[in-house]
């Protein structure tokens, strides 16, 4: 009987650990500190179950490179209002977006090169790219 309870406890812990690999719901990264904290909190998160919103990265040293762990976004991908974001390197491993892709009002962004790996956008008809390049 003790073995059964210990096994049940171990399985419960394992299920909890596997579920904690990614946050539930949407991920909103509105500062470089939030980007860094996400990667530190979820170092094994490869598939986001909700939307990914990257906004308000206004520092000239904005860096998404640590987000290279992400392969899929099951919801929308929104990259907007980032005055300090000059490239999308770090998002190059995202191959799938289950919703819309919106990129707009990123004054320092000059190309979409970091999204070269994106091969599937489920709502392709609604794919919206607004580039505000100088």
Please give a structural write-up.
By secondary structure, the protein is α/β, with parallel strands linked by helices. It contains two helices and nine strands, in the order H-E-H-E-E-E-E-E-E-E-E. It has helices at 2-19, 32-41; strands at residues 27-29, 47-48, 52-55, 72-73, 77-80, 96-97, 101-104, 120-121, 128-129. The strands form two sheets. It has a five-stranded parallel sheet. A four-stranded parallel sheet has the order 2-4-6-8, with no helix packed on it. The longest helix has 18 residues, at 2-19. The radius of gyration is 17 Å and the shape is globular. It starts with a helix and ends in a 5-residue tail after the last strand. Residues 11-19 have low confidence and may be disordered.
Q: Which helices and strands, and how do they pair?
A:
Blueprint: H1 2-19, E1 27-29, H2 32-41, E2 47-48, E3 52-55, E4 72-73, E5 77-80, E6 96-97, E7 101-104, E8 120-121, E9 128-129
Parallel strand pairs: 1-3, 2-4, 3-5, 4-6, 5-7, 6-8, 7-9
């Amino acid at each position: 009987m003790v073995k059964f309870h210990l096994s049940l406890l171990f399985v419960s812990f394992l299920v909890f650990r596997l579920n904690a690999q990614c946050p539930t719901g949407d991920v909103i990264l509105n500062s470089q500190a939030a980007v860094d904290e996400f990667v530190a909190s979820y170092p094994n998160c490869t598939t986001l179950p909700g939307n990914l919103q990257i906004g308000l990265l206004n520092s000239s040293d904005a860096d998404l490179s640590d987000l290279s762990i992400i392969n899929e976004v099951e919801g929308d991908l929104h990259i907007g209002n980032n005055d300090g974001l000059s490239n999308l390197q770090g998002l190059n491993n995202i191959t799938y977006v289950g919703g819309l892709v919106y990129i707009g009002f990123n004054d320092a962004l000059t190309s979409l090169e970091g999204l070269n790996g994106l091969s599937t956008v489920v709502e392709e008809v609604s794919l919206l790219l607004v580039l505000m390049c100088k």
